[in-house]
Amino acid sequence: MPRYLVGRLAGMAGVLLLVCLFTYAVFFLLSPDPAVQVCGKSCTPERIDQIRMNLGLDRPFWTQFLSFLGGLVSGRTYGEGANAVECAAPCLGYSFQSSQSVTDMIWQRLPVSATVAVGAAVLWLLVGVVSGLIGAVKNGTWVDRVMTGLTLGGLSIPNYVLALVLQFVLVVQLQWLPFPQAVPFGEDPGRWFLNFVMPWIVLAVGYAAAYTRLTRANVIDTLQENFLRTARAKGLAPHLVWRRHALRPALTPVVTVFGMDFAGLLGGALITETVFGLNGVGKMAADSIAKNDQPVIMGVTLLAAFFVVIGNVVVDVVYTVIDPRVRVAA
Amino acid sequence: MTSTNRHPTQAGFLEVRDLTVSFPTATGRVDVVSHLDLDLEPGGALGIVGESGSGKSLTSLAIMGLLPDKATRSGTVRLDGEDLTAMPESRLRRVRGDRVAMIFQDPLSSLNPYYTVGAQIEEAYRSHRRGVTRRQAHRVAVEAMERVHIKDAAHRIDHYPHQFSGGMRQRVMIAMALTTEPELLIADEPTTALDVTVQAQILALLQEIRRDTGTALVLITHDLAVVSEITDHIVVMRAGECVERGPVESIFSDPKHPYTQALLDAVPRIDDEIGALRSLTTTGGRP
Ligand SMILES: Nc1ncnc2c1ncn2[C@@H]1O[C@H](COP(=O)(O)OP(=O)(O)O)[C@@H](O)[C@H]1O
Ligand SMILES: [Mg+2]
To answer: Out of B66, B98, B109, whose CB is closest to A232?
Structure first.
């Protein structure tokens, strides 16, 4: 098991390195010249050349990539002399537009994104798994059909539409929720919580629908398994057949998908954060795309990729605990 | 045909009468088991033989009351005089796995991959013996595994089904069935998924268990050779109906129905170490 873990972590490091290389290469090839942006509107070609040299943009790709990796590990300095800016490790880049290191920008916004992700995840897991179970038990009845319809609706409604509808209904019409307004947790925890209710719902709906489907399908499949017949032939009561023999195999795949989905969201829920004006990583990414703030876009991309890769490994390790077949093979 | 069908040979322990199982289809209900009678004396062994799809598995599930929801069943299944079809589900559960135990064709998929074999064997025992401790159940499980000749049972009990070979998994299934000392064991194609040599071992084991415990056995198979070794009576099924029944010897020596004849012709002669040779010598005329 530890050996397996070591191998897995080494593999993860390799994948992360490749992710860095790939992302860096894409931005290197596709993005407009950062020097032009740094220089601003009134700029001479000579000045641009100088900035290029300062930032090392005149050097070959591999050299630049290596300095980027160096920055990740031990920080780096952009430019020289009076114009020099420090970027502490792990340096994901520097936003000249915001005069801030990308890492700092992300750190400031990560708590909001994490709050959105965690709350939504709790919601969609509860709703998705419970309604999936109901759908499986009521398979083929009108309850199941109604739920299938709702699921389809949940999957197809765009986030921003749902957000507008919710705001109109819950805030304007029913006035169940206050108008969204950023309040620090320490100041008024109740208000802070209410602020996140709509983003949580909006983000959770699509996932809840998908998890309902997944759970329902898995449970129905599991109920066909021969070992369930064995459990019944033993004379077990139905609730024991379910609890001991059906649920665990049926819900194991949900764990995998959940790990990946959740990890993906830590990189920011772009639309939800933007719609509700939540100052998270997702909104920052959207803003940076609008402003063409290339280092930030790349930083967020890398961050999201990191989370997915790490989430993958976590899921695999969790799997070795849940599924004895994987455990022994490992 | 009806005359052979209504021809109970023994009375007593298991008495199935007029068992019919049907499924709804687009064109109405279809009987997949129709008007079947079965009889088994205490400790006896009955073989149900027929090609795939002839309704053997559904017959066994109908006896256990474990048919799929869509299926309907009529007729009676008496165990020691008690009609299982009239029993409330809660009482039937106390029969299943305790007085009547079942083993299936595919031992790997019939065992839950998420639990150790020990946990699954112990579960069978504890669900019918209120108040036994974990430790007692554990001991019973080890003993059951030893009884089916799983080596190093005390250690193997903590392994998972996928860590066993096919034959060993079927032994685990048998051990699970044995913990409660059932009066009747229903084995639905217990050797079909196994290699020939392993098949022979499992059949020998079933034989041995029958001898040692006196449990009655219903052995279901598509292979007449398998059935000939252990059972004394055979019911030949085709398309849900019994086409021929009788003692093993008379079926082998003098099959009445062309379908039985065809099944006999299909009995392999070279690789079958147990049944066919003996049967062939007793039947004489077949090389
Ligand atoms: N759930 C089901 N729904 C409809 N028909 C079924 C179902 N299960 C089995 N059958 C049909 O019943 C017949 C008998 O099946 P089965 O008892 O499994 O045969 P055997 O065990 O002899 O191979 C088959 O023709 C099969 O198609
Ligand atoms: Mg069958």
So the answer is: B66
Mutate to test the interface with B, among A220, A227, A239 (most CBs of B within 10 A): A227
Whole-model pTM: value is 0.82
Nearest-CA residue for ligand 1 atom 20 is B53
Range of the domain at B116: 109-181
Contacts 24+ apart (CB under 8 A), A77-83: A78/A54, A79/A54, A79/A55, A80/A54, A83/A54
Residue B26, judged by CB atoms within 10 A of its CB (0-12, 13-18, 19+), counts as exposed
Which residues are within 8 A (CB) of B136 and not within 5 positions of it... i.e. 6 or more apart? none
Q: Which atom of ligand 1 is nearest to the CA of B23?
A: 4
Task: Give the Cα separation of A328 and B116 in Å (integer).
Answer: 12
Among chain A residues, CA nearest to B122: A234
Interface check for A240 against chain B (CB to CB < 8 A): the answer is yes
Give the angle subtended at the CA of B251 by the CAs of B245 and B257, to the nearest 5°.
70
Distance of CA A137 to the CA centre of its chain: 32
Contact B97 A227 (CB under 8 A): no
* Cβ neighbours for A320, distance < 8 A, ≥ 6 positions apart: A1, A4, A326, A327, A330
Among B97, B113, B116, whose Cβ lies nearest the Cβ of A234?
A: B97
What is the mean predicted confidence (pLDDT) over B102-126?
95
- A156: alpha, beta or left? (left if phi > 0; alpha if psi -120 to 50): alpha
- Radius of gyration of chain A, Cα coordinates, nearest whole angstrom: 24
Kindly determine whether residue A230 and residue B66, on different chains, have CB atoms separated by under 8 Å: no
Go through the domains of chain A in sequence order and give each one's CATH number.
32-91 (no CATH), 105-329 (1.10.3720.10)
Cβ of residue A241 closer than 8 Å to a chain B Cβ: no
Closest chain A residue to the Cα of B176, Cα to Cα: A234
**Domain assignment present for B128:** yes
Burial label for A246, CB within 10 Å (0-12, 13-18, 19+), is: buried
Chain B closest CA to A324's CA: distance in Å? 6
Question: Is B175 contained in some domain?
Answer: yes
The distance from CA B223 to its chain's CA centroid, rounded to whole angstroms, is: 13
Number of domains in chain B: 1
Q: Which residues pair with A78 in a beta bridge?
A: A85
Over the range A297-322, which residues count as b (16 or more CB within 10 Å of their CB) and which as e?
Answer: bbbbbbbbbbbbbbbbbebbbbbbeb
Name which residue leads in pLDDT, A47 or B260: B260
Whether residue B157 lies within 8 A of chain A, CB to CB, comes out as: no
CB distance B113–A235 less than 8 Å? no
- Whether ligand 1 lies within 6 angstroms of the CB of B236 is answered as no
In this predicted model, what pLDDT tens digit does every residue of B163-192 receive, in sequence order? Answer: 999 999 999 999 999 999 999 999 999 998
pLDDT score, position B271: 45
pLDDT digits (tens, 9 = 90+) for A242-285: 999 999 999 998 988 999 899 888 888 888 898 888 889 999 99
Contact A230 B106 (CB under 8 A): no
Structure tokens at A328: 């022994």
Give B101's strand partners: B185
Give the count of beta carbons closer than 10 Å to the beta carbon of residue B281: 9
